[in-house]
């Protein structure tokens, strides 16, 4: 990212990038941080400035997992429906956009009943373990 972008946090850039999407900003249900939700279902957590968590599905993760990890920018979190995206460059933000688009499609209540988050987010799981 350019030096000018560094004056704005990556989390702020993420929120700005999704302003015209069908997502609403809210407080993450596992603080600290913010979230982006689709019809009340949190799809993106921003607990840190340099990391976003995206709620996909096991099917999407199973299909794309090897490609995502090969990018070096995405971490899969065992036994969850979440992936973690490292945010440092504009390319990372574009990758996040693509994954959020997949998350919307995979969790869209218009095409299937709204389901609760099946697994807790990685940050919250780590805090429970410690």
What are the main properties of this structure?
6 strands; 6-stranded antiparallel beta sheet; Aspartate Aminotransferase, domain 1; 130 residues; alpha+beta
Describe the secondary structure blueprint for this structure.
Elements lengths: L9 H8 L6 E4 L6 E5 L2 E8 L2 E5 L2 H13 L3 E3 L5 E5 L3 H18 L14 H8 L1
Antiparallel strand pairs: 1-2, 2-3, 3-4, 4-6, 5-6
Helix content: 25-40%
User: Count of helical segments?
Assistant: 4
- Helix and strand run: HEEEEHEEHH
Distance between the termini: 34 Å
Q: Which fold does the CATH topology refer to?
A: Aspartate Aminotransferase, domain 1
- Regarding quaternary structure, what we see is single chain
Strand content: 15-25%
> Which architecture name does CATH use?
Alpha-Beta Complex
Extract low-pLDDT stretches: none
Computed over alpha carbons, the radius of gyration is 14 Å
Shape: globular
- Major sheet attributes: 6 strands, antiparallel
Q: What is the residue-averaged pLDDT?
A: 85
Structure, described:
The protein is of the alpha+beta class and 130 residues long. The protein has one domain: Alpha-Beta Complex (Aspartate Aminotransferase, domain 1). Helix content is 36%, strand content 23%. It contains 4 helices and 6 strands; from the N terminus they run H-E-E-E-E-H-E-E-H-H. It has helices at residues 10-17, 58-70, 90-107, 122-129, and strands at residues 24-27, 34-38, 41-48, 51-55, 74-76, 82-86. Strands 1-2-3-4-6-5 form a 6-stranded antiparallel β-sheet. A hairpin with a 2-residue loop joins strand 3 (41-48) and strand 4. It is globular and about 35 Å long. The model has no long low-confidence stretch (mean pLDDT 85).
């Amino acid at each position: 990212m350019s030096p000018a972008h560094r004056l704005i946090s990556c989390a702020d850039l993420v929120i700005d990038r999704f302003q015209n999407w069908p997502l609403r900003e809210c407080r993450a249900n596992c603080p600290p941080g913010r979230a982006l939700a689709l019809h009340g279902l949190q799809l993106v957590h921003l607990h840190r400035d340099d990391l976003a968590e995206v709620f996909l599905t096991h099917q999407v993760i199973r299909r794309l997992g090897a490609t995502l990890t090969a990018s070096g920018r995405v971490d899969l979190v065992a036994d969850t429906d979440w992936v973690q995206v490292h945010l440092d460059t504009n390319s990372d933000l574009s990758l996040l956009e693509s994954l959020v688009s997949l998350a919307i499609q995979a969790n869209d209540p218009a095409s299937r009943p709204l389901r609760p988050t099946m697994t807790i987010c990685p940050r919250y799981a780590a805090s429970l373990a410690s």
